[in-house]
Automatic annotation (TrEMBL):
<feature type="domain" description="Longin">
    <location>
        <begin position="8"/>
        <end position="118"/>
    </location>
</feature>
<dbReference type="GO" id="GO:0030659">
    <property type="term" value="C:cytoplasmic vesicle membrane"/>
</dbReference>
<keyword id="KW-0488">Methylation</keyword>
<keyword id="KW-0968">Cytoplasmic vesicle</keyword>
<keyword id="KW-0963">Cytoplasm</keyword>
<dbReference type="GO" id="GO:0006888">
    <property type="term" value="P:endoplasmic reticulum to Golgi vesicle-mediated transport"/>
</dbReference>
<dbReference type="GO" id="GO:0016740">
    <property type="term" value="F:transferase activity"/>
</dbReference>
<keyword id="KW-0813">Transport</keyword>
<keyword id="KW-0808">Transferase</keyword>
<keyword id="KW-0636">Prenylation</keyword>
<dbReference type="GO" id="GO:0015031">
    <property type="term" value="P:protein transport"/>
</dbReference>
<feature type="domain" description="V-SNARE coiled-coil homology">
    <location>
        <begin position="138"/>
        <end position="198"/>
    </location>
</feature>
<keyword id="KW-0931">ER-Golgi transport</keyword>
<keyword id="KW-0472">Membrane</keyword>
<dbReference type="InterPro" id="IPR011012">
    <property type="entry name" value="Longin-like_dom_sf"/>
</dbReference>
<keyword id="KW-0564">Palmitate</keyword>
<comment type="similarity">
    <text>Belongs to the synaptobrevin family.</text>
</comment>
Length: 198
């Protein structure tokens, strides 16, 4: 799971204006980085231009997902991530960034702003913090822990069932155990299974 780009844009009538952006292109070769960054900027602007105000969307392009959120006040955010990155976490990040941006940057500057003129320093920090969605988002962290616990519990139950089935087979095939011993085992097994369910 990886985030590549986090951008804040203004959706104008004719086109989208890039206000501020942060990129992590370290996974690309050195000679491709500037081209990849330019393409991410182009893609972000295009997606915002084609999205309506008050909308959220995820657009798939090859193995990447572009998550866009355009607010009713024309402020927009775009996250470009790999396809494994959780959409819920991406939209949480966008909402948080746009709220911070709108509080720190005057609305008058949005239509005429550019990355050089807008003073907002939070994007790089958010981009690096949200690289690991488990650590950045408490809900994702709890869900991952629940999934791990469920897998362990499931494996434990399977191993117990296999053991129990083998023991049942041994008891039923046994010639040494008497009828009373087999009846005692079956009764005890039923009692134990009732206790295990509760």
């Amino acid at each position: 799971m990886r985030l590549y780009s986090l951008s804040v844009l203004y959706k104008g009538d004719a086109k989208a204006v890039l206000l501020k952006a942060a990129y992590d292109v370290s996974s690309f070769s050195f000679f491709q980085r500037s081209s990849v960054q330019e393409f991410m900027t182009f893609t972000s602007q295009l997606i915002v231009e084609r999205s309506s105000k008050g909308s959220r969307a995820s657009v798939k392009e090859q193995e990447y997902l572009c998550h866009v959120y355009v607010r009713n006040d024309s402020l927009a955010g775009v996250v470009i991530a790999d396809s494994e990155y959780p959409s819920r976490v991406a939209f949480t990040l966008l909402e948080k960034v746009l709220d911070e941006f709108s509080k720190q940057v005057d609305r008058i500057d949005w239509p005429v702003g550019s990355p050089d003129t807008i003073q907002f320093a939070g994007l790089d920090g958010h981009l690096s913090r949200y690289q690991n969605p488990r650590e950045a988002d408490p809900m994702t962290k709890v869900q991952a822990e629940l999934d791990e616990t469920k897998i362990i519990l499931h494996n434990t139950m399977e191993s117990l069932l296999e053991r129990g089935e083998k023991l049942d087979d041994l008891v039923s095939k046994s010639e040494v155990l008497g009828i009373q011993s087999k009846a005692f085992y079956k009764t005890a097994r039923k009692q134990n299974s009732c206790c295990a369910i509760m």
